[in-house]
Specification:
The chain has 202 residues and is α+β, with helices and mostly antiparallel strands. It is built from nine helices and five strands, in the order H-H-H-H-H-H-H-E-E-E-H-E-E-H. It folds into two domains: 86 residues, Orthogonal Bundle (Ribosomal Protein S4 Delta 41, Chain A, domain 1), CATH 1.10.1050; 89 residues, Structural Genomics Hypothetical 15.5 Kd Protein In mrcA-pckA Intergenic Region, Chain A. It has a five-stranded antiparallel sheet with strand order 2-1-3-5-4, covered by helices on one side. A hairpin with a 4-residue loop joins strand 4 and strand 5. The protein is globular, with a radius of gyration of 18 Å.
Length: 202
Amino acid sequence: MNQARPKVRRSRALGIPLTPKCVRYFERRPFPPGQHGRSRRTQSDYKVRLLEKQRLKAQYDLREGQLRRAFDRAVRRPGKTGEELLTDLETRLDAIVLRAGFARTIYQARQTVVHRHVTVNGRRLDRPSARLSPGDVVAIAERSRGRTPFLLAAAGAHAPQRPAPYLDVNLANLTARLERLPVRAEIPVVCDEQLIVEYYSR
C-alpha cells in the first residue's frame, strides 16, 4: 500500500499539502475527496472553526489533547492568544528540527527526536513536545551524523526555502540555536489562529 495516500486524502480534505510528496497530488485535485468534493457547500461557523483547528493539528502532527494544553498555556500569557499558541507550538523540539532543515517533514522530525538522534544543549532528548527557550542549541548527535538522512540534511537537501529568522543554523555541523521566540509573520503555517481561539472559547 502506498503510505503517501492517507496523507494525500487528508491534505485534500484540509485544503493544504501536508508533505512535499503531497504537493503534486494536491495541485492536480485541489478539492476534498469523495463524490461531493467538487461541490461548494455552505459551511456552518462551527465547521469553519473546526476545519481550521484540524489544519493546525495536522501541520504539527498533534493529538487533540496536545493542542488543547498548548491553547490553555497560551490563554494564560499576556499577548494575543492565537499568536501565543503558534509561538508555543513553533518552539516544540520537533518543529525546531524541521525548521532547521534537519528533517524533510514534521513526521520525520518527530521520528528523529524519538529515536534519540537529537541533543539539546549537549544532552540527548527524545521528547518531540519538549519546548525550547532562547539560547537553547539543538544538534544531531555525533554518532548519528554519518547516517544517510543526516548526510542529506547537512548537504542542504531539507533546507526550507525561507530560513527561519529566529534560528541560527549551521547545516554543515547540523546545529541550530534558537535566538529568540518567533513572531506570527515568521511562522510558516497555514491557519487563521483567531478561528481556533474562537473554537476553543465557545
